Amino acid sequence: MKALVFHEKKCIGCKLCHLACSAQNEEIFNPRLARLVITSCYDRDGLIVEGQVCDLCMSCVEACPVDAIIEKNGRLSFLEDLCTDCGLCVDVCPNQVIVKKDRGIGVCVQCRSCANWCPTEALTFEEVNK
Amino acid sequence: MMAYTGKVLRIDLTTGKASTEPLNKEWAKEYLGGKGLSIKYLYEELKPGVDPLSADNKLILMTGPMTGTIVPNSGKLAIAAKSPATGTILDCSIGGHFANELKYAGYDAVIIEGKAKAPVYLFIDDDIVEMRSAADLWGKGAHETEHLIADALGDVITLAIGQAGENLLPMACISSELYRQAGRGGIGAVMGSKNLKAVAVWGSGGIEIPNIRKVSAALNKIKREDTMTDDNMWAYSDGTPMIVDLSQSTGILPTRNFQEGTFDQYKNINSDAVKGTLKAKKACYACPLACSNYVKKGKTEVEGPEYETLALCGSNCGIGDLEAVIEFNRLCDDYCLDTISAGNVVAFAMELTEKGIHDFGIRFGDVDNFLKMPGLISTREGTGADLAEGVRAIAKKYGGNDFAMQVKGLEIPGYEPRGSWSMGLAYGTADRGACHMRAWPAAVEAFGDIDPFTSEGKAELVIGMQDDNAVKFSAIFCDFWALSTERMAEILSMLLDREVTAAELTKIGERVYNLARLFNEREGFERKDDYLPERIYSDKLTTGATEGKLLPREEYDKMLAEYYQLRGWDENGIITDMKKKELNL
Questions:
Q1: Average pLDDT over residues B393-401
Q2: Which residues of B touch A16 (CB under 8 A)?
Q3: What is the CATH number of the domain that holds A61?
């Protein structure tokens, strides 16, 4: 199965991935609505680069009590009409890349906008062992 | 207004009151944002002759119409005030992630007025604006200040000053994310004079534009085909340290306080040497070019050193020890000293000492004392008490005026004018004193195909670049993307609710540059202030490609006269009424 992979050594911290994701999926430039979390900042010990992307672990699919998140051919879909806003998926996501919205949630649909924008191939869409 | 938020946050530190007001749309159309719009606000709101370190000066944080969007290289912020170093208009440009955060908080700009009774910092949390005590932060470096604010507030982006700003140094800068600086002209001292230690921001909002997916796709194509090209990718492969070799080979690498244009130890501080210490490349918000080098050497680290630091704090101080330059850079960023001015000041002290004019206890190449300088200068201790005031003031007190390397009180950047005559004119006519960011003609002249040792055609060259950069810094594109005015117009048209033309942008650039001049004119600046230090006109360089070279005063005068004429200014450098009318000034 193919999924997004983050390569921290290549990341420059430009956040174009966040912008690309929010534009594609939420029709707004708002990095906090992106369905991935890339951090590049300094703390007292120096530069920290970390990234979380959806690796299709299926925790959210399994946790959803009303089957509002489904997986088909390696892609997640969200069915808003079924969602009860219980927030379980957000809580169980080990990568914390599910966006809680006023109504419903946003999951990564492997649209690859982030990887298409990444200038340094720090985000790639490639075969992962599942 | 589409990509603008249409909202300005005004904070009066004297009363502690924050209020919002609509962005002046007419001005936004004529000046766009960033540099131009912040100067317009200052021109309209500051009383002529205002003391830059008084409560009556204002500090403006200004974004641009593209800030916070996916437009490549749109991540910078303009910070403007009247300059404590020069008394001119002062707009600085700082990278990092503050500008977008401010826009997401809902503001195009913040205007900070007055003076707090005791040290404070501001926390802008969307529409909640708090003035918090900075009693525990005062006296600390910018780095620890940022860490402590992050401890208290979490995921915020901060502009902070160090001890240099608190102590009102005319070379105090503002730092953000440790290693990003609004560097020049004492902008940090304006914050210090207001008892303002830091501004932290967090924004939850976003920017919506019609056809956002289509626009994003078009911009991604532009990013691939016009941003990430050979013309610009030097920023990623090397960053600004690559200029060291160029300057050395063309004889314009300032060395030992501009006594020479080449440095025998340049290989210790060039791009190859910096690459040997590289840990990671780092970018500003929305920038695919990532010019920054995060480096570690020995016990020290920094995001840098940029070319200007390598030149002014390296060769210009006779320091060929990269680890020492990196550590000096880190110290300057923490204390919040502008490395261009600090390097100049230390080099000037070295030459004054060696010439026996005044003993500052430091000589060229003296690494141990060199590394003590940022601390002494920032806290005005020992020899730092005199050095803190900048080269012009030091020369006034002790002499050496002919080789006090400054224009209008601002120390000269890393391009020797005797080997790049257009840079001389660019320094003389830059709106904030000697600055390489208003125009950088060395790129096409000393480093390109144009003869550096002629005055011919230089006025036109410099004017074109000044106007281009003025509009670029007003729209807020980083200068490291060498994009055409047509491309700027194409992108702005995608984000604004009107068609923007290249001709309109060229006019805006000219308008912005003239307004900056008009501000300075109102403060009493004229032709006599547009001259370079005597050394440039009368001391011949002695090594390398510039051996035997000067910039003769009569040639400089010729360039300046032509410059004024092409600008539509009179022979004293005063903007004519006709030009003012043409530009709606």
A1: 98
A2: 70, 72, 286, 288
A3: 3.30.70.20
- Given the cut 0.90, state whether the ipTM is greater than it: yes
Give the right CATH number for B239-395 from 1.10.357.20, 1.10.3810.10, 3.40.50.720, 1.10.569.10: 1.10.569.10
Q: What is the pLDDT of residue A129?
A: 73
CB contact under 8 A, B290 and A12: yes
B421-429 and B458-475 helices cross at what angle (nearest 10)?
50
Tell me the C-alpha distance between B93 and B91, whole Å: 7
- Into how many domains does chain A fold? 1
User: Which residues from A are below 8 Å from B208, CB to CB?
Assistant: 27-29
The pLDDT assigned to B326 comes to: 98
B129, β-bridge pairs: B124
Q: Which of A13, A44, A49 comes nearest B147 by C-beta?
A: A44
Rounded to a whole number, what is the distance in Å from the CA of A64 to chain B's nearest CA?
Answer: 27
Render pLDDT for B554-563 as a digit per residue (tens, 0 to 9): 999 999 999 9
Joined tokens for residue B438: 């208003």
**Which residue of chain B comes nearest to A30, CA vs CA?**
B206
Phi, psi of B451 (to 5 degrees): -60, 120
Question: Is the per-residue pLDDT at B98 higher than 80?
Answer: yes
* Closest partner CB to A30 (pick from B206, B216, B296): B206
Partner-chain contact A119 B216, CB within 8 Å: no
Closest residue to A42, CB basis, from B72, B177, B289: B177
A20/B220 CB distance under 8 A: yes
Nearest C-alpha in A relative to B154: A43
The verdict on a CB contact (< 8 Å) between A29 and B208 is: yes
Neighbouring C-beta atoms of residue B568, cutoff 10 Å: 16
Q: Does B385 touch chain A (CB under 8 A)?
A: no
- CATH architecture of residue range(s) B417-532+552-582: Orthogonal Bundle (1.10)
Please tell me the distance from the alpha carbon of residue B425 to that of residue B440, in angstroms, as a whole number: 10
Report yes or no: B172 and B147 within 8 Å, Cβ to Cβ: no
Which residues of A fall within a CB distance of 8 Å from B104? Answer: 30-32
In chain B, CATH 1.10.599.10 covers: 417-532+552-582
Structural domain for A71, as ranges: 2-127
pLDDT of B515-533, one tens digit each?
999 999 999 999 999 999 9
Report which of B321, B323, B378, B322 is spatially closest to residue B346, judged by C-alpha positions. B378
**Residue B2 has what pLDDT?**
77
CB-CB under 8 Å, B204 with A19: no
| Radius of gyration (C-alpha) of chain B in whole angstroms | 22
Report the mean per-residue pLDDT for chain A. 96
Q: Do B514 and B579 meet the contact criterion of CB atoms below 8 Å apart?
A: yes
Nearest CA in chain B to A43: B147
Q: What are phi and psi of B362, to 5 degrees?
A: -145, 135
| Sequence-distant (≥ 6) Cβ neighbours of residue B224 within 8 angstroms | none
Judge whether B281 is closer than 8 Å to chain A, CB to CB: yes
Helix or strand holding residue B407 (H, E): strand B406-407
User: CATH 1.10.569.10 spans which residues of chain B?
Assistant: 239-395
Mean pLDDT rounded to a whole number for chain B: 98
Q: What is the mean pLDDT of residues B345-369?
A: 98
- Best residue in B73, B155, B176, B285 for a mutation probing chain A (most A CBs within 10 Å): B285
- Architecture, CATH, for domain B7-202: 4-Layer Sandwich (3.60)
Which residues, given as ranges, of chain A have pLDDT below 70? 130
**CB pair distance less than 8 Å for B104 and A44:** no
Residues of A in contact with B5 (CB under 8 A): none
Residues of chain B with CATH 3.60.9.10: 7-202
